[in-house]
């Protein structure tokens, strides 16, 4: 992503699949 | 223009894949190592191992749902490498380091082999 202003997001990006339903 | 990079995305995805493995969701192959069986996802195995990449890109073998490994492979060594594939953490127990390295050689996981070599040399 040359030349694009990149903002770093440190938090979780997706849902967490539970260990069991 | 801007771009937001989620720095922990790769580890979040890997953690979810490992949760799917532990719940046997969408696993599509059983790896037989001597008398032990390990369920896994072909895509993760072939992403991490040159041997599994060769097996599952072979049109005659890619639809197999069970693969027996060479009897010389140590099940404990394989279990540790499978856990590494799904977590990025390699458990190096002193008593198993050679089994792990030999299994990594067999699975064609060259970077793990190199790291094991360096670990053995540094601990000598």
Write the layout of secondary structure elements.
The complex is a heterodimer of chains A (21) and B (124).
Chain A: E1 5-9
Chain B: E1 2-6, H1 9-22, E2 29-33, E3 36-40, H2 42-48, H3 50-56, E4 66-68, H4 75-87, H5 97-106, H6 110-123
Parallel strand pairs in B: 2-4
Antiparallel strand pairs in B: 2-3
Helix pairs in contact in B: 2-3, 4-5, 5-6
Structural overview:
The complex is a heterodimer of chains A (21) and B (124). Chain A has 21 residues and is mainly β. Helix content of chain A is 0%, strand content 24%. Chain A has no helices and one strand. Chain A has one strand at 5-9. Chain A is rod-shaped, with a radius of gyration of 15 Å. Chain A starts with a strand and ends in a 12-residue tail after the last strand. Chain B has 124 residues and is α+β, with helices and mostly antiparallel strands. In chain B, 52% of the residues lie in helices and 15% in strands. Chain B has helices at 9-22, 42-48, 50-56, 75-87, 97-106, 110-123; strands at residues 2-6, 29-33, 36-40, 66-68. A three-stranded mixed β-sheet of chain B has the order 3-2-4. In chain B, helix 4 (75-87) packs across helix 5 and helix 5 (97-106) runs antiparallel to helix 6. The mean pLDDT of chain B is 96. Chains A and B meet through strand 1 of A and strand 1 and helix 1 of B.
């Amino acid at each position: 992503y040359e030349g694009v202003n990149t903002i770093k997001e440190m938090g979780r990006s997706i849902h967490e699949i539970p260990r069991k339903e | 223009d801007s771009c937001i990079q989620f720095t922990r995305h790769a580890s979040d995805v890997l953690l979810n894949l490992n949760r799917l493995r532990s719940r046997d969701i969408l696993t599509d192959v059983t790896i037989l190592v001597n008398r032990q069986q390990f369920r896994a996802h072909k895509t993760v195995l072939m992403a991490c191992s040159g041997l599994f990449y060769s097996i599952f890109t072979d049109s005659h073998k890619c639809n197999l749902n069970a693969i027996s490994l060479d009897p010389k492979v140590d099940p404990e060594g394989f279990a540790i490498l499978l856990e590494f594939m799904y977590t990025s953490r390699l458990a190096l127990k002193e008593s198993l380091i050679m089994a792990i390295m030999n299994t990594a050689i067999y699975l064609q996981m060259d970077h793990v082999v190199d790291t094991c070599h360096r670990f053995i040399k540094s601990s000598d």
